[in-house]
Design a protein that fits this description.
Helix content is about 15%, strand content about 45%. The longest helix is centred in the middle third of the chain and has 13 residues, at about 60-75. Strand 4 and strand 5 form a beta hairpin. The protein has about 160 residues and is of the alpha+beta class. It has 2 helices and 8 strands.
């Protein structure tokens, strides 16, 4: 389950800037993106080694709109303290049923590179778990090849 969550976080890192904001042109080039992430998780009595992941994902206008639509449908998690510029986005996240909280920051300054971080605190089986993820993304090209939108390719 944790691995699936990591893939989802990394795969959507290139699209996260679209979450919780009005539909608009993406702040990055559309096409194939490669993202490298590092995640650490800590739980009392069970510190886990950092996990790194490298994936390729396909960003299209449709996947951008879909990411926005799914984020707005999630009534459990609410963004607060949102701060936006033309190339960056940050927000705090509060999820009512799971009592998870977090902070997300991302920047797509050049449109062909991006980076970000996410800090989450959640309840896992009655214990508090902390998850920190940092990622770097780079534009590979306009042709996504065999990588379908919404289906990231795990490289490592």
């Amino acid at each position: 389950m944790v691995n699936k969550m990591l893939v989802k976080v990394v795969a959507t890192s290139g699209l996260l800037a679209g979450f919780f904001q009005a539909p608009m042109a993406p702040p990055m080039k559309l096409g194939l993106w490669e993202t490298t992430s590092s995640t650490t998780m800590q739980m009392p009595g069970m510190d886990m080694p950092p996990r790194s992941m490298k994936i390729r994902s396909c960003a299209t206008a449709e996947s951008w709109s879909k990411a926005f639509g799914q984020s707005r449908q999630n009534k459990d998690c609410t963004p607060v303290n949102e701060k936006r510029t033309a190339t960056s986005y940050s927000f705090d996240l509060s999820c009512s049923s799971s009592k998870a909280t977090g902070h997300v920051e991302m920047d797509f300054g050049s449109g062909s590179t991006g980076h970000g971080s996410m800090h989450m605190v959640m309840n896992a089986g009655g214990k508090e778990m902390t998850m920190d993820t940092k990622w770097e993304s780079k534009y590979v090209g306009a042709d996504c090849g065999s990588v379908a939108p919404g289906t990231p390719e795990i490289l490592q």
